[in-house]
Design brief:
Its main location: membrane. The chain is α+β, with helices and mostly antiparallel strands and 495 residues long. The protein has two domains: 310 residues, Outer membrane efflux proteins (OEP) (Up-down Bundle); 116 residues, no CATH class. Helices cover 60% and strands 21% of the residues. Strand 3 and strand 4 form a beta hairpin. Helix 4 runs antiparallel to helix 5 and helix 4 runs antiparallel to helix 10. The N terminus is likely disordered.
């Protein structure tokens, strides 16, 4: 699983070495792998996905902490009061008297959730001190130790359901992060080929201008010798002007593409780069069954579909439990003591126990409970339908994309051969034109065929690589290394 990480690091260090070696030439040649790696390492887009992954990581850690024992201490240190307060007399009457007291309380508690039943159990110890300035006395009261529980009955158990959904949410987040990195790779590949198309047009325009100027010099000699018509000479001169115009337009487009690519991959705008056409590629066949198996195993849609089905059942259960009888059972047992000194609080303590059942029964709700349950049932059926439909569409998308990718191999080989033929045809036509064997019209036709074949070849290479990267997104599987794609968020510590 770590092959992808090792491979990426190797490419990154190789790229750094390449940059150092080419600094003296002031031009850095970038391959498609270089651009993709730079985008993964330092693009602004990747920072967003890393931070989002960190957010999901700490959400998971926070959720896990809910199921561990919680130890805490609370109290009032101090609570000083000087006021007139109603005091209940032995005969039940009230008398207002001035009090001047310093009260201090402290409670130490340990709580634990039992998620299977939604029970809260706890153990605690408390101490209460009252210093009365009017009586010039100090009293102590405390519960050295007591335990208790709170048990909802016939109620919706959030803890139980959250233990079923939260692990799936976390799994989704991890797979979404890998998918996000692959989408950055695809986006960088698209910008690479966008730049490459413009770079190809610029190179063609520069080459056409050079050839057109050579043709014009030859035409000027022929004109002096009277071996060329004024019409043909004007056409040749016009071809030079058109070539200059094309080169200017290509230069502007190249600057725009250069800025966009460097901005996306986080490269200094002052760096001079030149893209290398990715001609070295291993054309291979992808088994649709393998792609589908890896998709279901690796993509976030797997746990997402499962989570949505669980949430539909959860919401139905919640609607049923929250609209009927609601009861809560509470109980506690321990010791307590009132004393004049702190040490006496913990001597010869007395029992302290409590058991209480709280009920809430709806009598008349005008069909509110029944409609809430029916609504939850309807939503559950809709979720079942949506999940099944989306799953079929998703699987079909994978199969179709694999079939299209496998067809691109023949298209790429055909475009490559057409490019060679058109290039040779243009060189032959250029030589014939310079020898006076064909007209400028025939040369322009050959030039158009050459440019179209070159652009078609670049477009075929682009289609191949974009389809390949999109398949990696759909499956999160590296078909070259035959391994699952894994990325570790560098902003998260190993612990």
């Amino acid at each position: 699983m770590l092959k992808n990480i090792t491979f990426s690091l190797a490419l990154f260090f190789l790229f750094k070495a390449k940059c150092n070696a080419q600094d003296s030439l002031n031009v850095i040649k970038l391959t498609l792998s270089d651009v993709v790696l730079l985008a993964i390492e330092q693009s602004p887009s990747i920072k967003y996905h890393q931070n989002r992954n960190v957010n999901n990581h700490w959400r998971w850690k926070n959720f896990q902490a809910n199921f561990r024992p919680q130890l805490g201490i609370s109290g009032d240190l101090p609570d000083y009061r000087v006021s007139n307060e109603p005091i209940t007399q032995p005969d039940g009457s009230l008398e207002f008297r001035q009090i001047s007291q310093l009260r201090t309380t402290a409670d130490l508690s340990l709580t634990q959730i039992i998620p299977q039943t939604g029970t809260t159990i706890y153990g605690a110890s408390s101490l209460y001190r009252v210093q009365d300035y009017n009586k010039n006395s100090t009293e102590w009261s405390g519960s050295p130790f007591y335990i208790g529980f709170v048990q909802p009955l016939f109620a919706y158990n959030w803890w139980k359901w959250s233990r079923m959904t939260e692990p799936l949410i976390y799994e989704e987040a991890q797979k979404r992060y890998v998918e996000s990195v692959e989408r950055v790779s695809l986006s960088s590949a698209q910008r690479f080929f966008s730049y490459l198309r413009v770079q190809t047009n610029y190179n063609l325009a520069a080459n056409n201008l050079k050839n057109s100027e050579d043709n014009l010099r030859i035409a000027e000699v022929k004109r002096k010798l009277g071996k060329i018509s004024e019409n043909d000479f004007s056409r040749i001169k016009l071809s030079v002007l058109n070539a200059k115009k094309s080169l200017t337009n290509s230069s502007i487009a190249l600057k725009n593409a250069d800025f966009e690519l460097k901005s996306y991959i986080g490269m200094d705008q002052n760096t001079n780069i030149q893209l290398v056409v990715p001609l070295e590629m291993s054309l291979f066949y992808i088994d649709p069954e393998l792609a589908l198996v890896q998709t279901l195993a690796n993509r976030k849609e797997g746990p997402e579909f499962e989570r949505r089905l669980i949430e539909a059942d959860r919401d139905l259960t919640k609607a049923k439990r929250n609209t009927g009888l609601s009861t809560t059972l509470r109980g506690s047992y321990g010791t307590s003591k009132n004393a004049l000194s702190l040490s006496e609080v913990y001597e010869e303590t007395e029992k302290q126990q409590m058991l209480r059942l709280t009920l809430k029964v709806p009598i008349l709700d005008w069909g509110k409970a029944a409609s809430a349950v029916k609504l939850a049932e309807s939503r559950r059926e809709l979720v079942l339908y949506d999940v099944e439909r989306e799953k079929l569409n998703f699987e079909r998308e994978v199969v179709v994309e694999v079939e299209q990718f496998n067809l691109l191999k023949d298209q790429l080989e055909t475009a490559k051969e057409a490019d060679k033929v058109a290039e040779n045809g243009y060189l032959i036509a250029l030589k014939k034109f310079q020898n006076g064997e064909i007209s400028i019209t025939d040369l322009n036709i050959s030039l158009s065929e050459r440019e179209k074949a070159k652009r078609d070849y670049i477009a075929s290479i682009e289609d191949y690589w974009e389809s390949y990267h999109y398949l990696r997104i759909l499956t999160l599987y590296d078909f070259e290394l035959n391994d699952k794609i894994v990325y570790i968020n560098p902003t998260l510590s190993p612990n």
